[in-house]
Request: fold
Amino acid sequence: MKRQMVKVLMAQGETLKVALEAVCMASSSYYYKPVGQRKPRSLDATLVAAISEVRRGHAAVYGYRKVTMALRAGGIDD
Reply:
């Protein structure tokens, strides 16, 4: 509802900042897209394989920080 009000105000010539303030809406809420409306991202198969290899045998104790450090030590800097 608020998003529609912002669009109406902008169509009347108001700036986005003024329109958001008028309806008491944060800019992050205005730009937020629900999961169903986001573009799907494809996974990098080599990166997924490298992560799986690093976590093999250590899945319970390897969080993202340890996985990242292990990947960088192995030469992957994505």
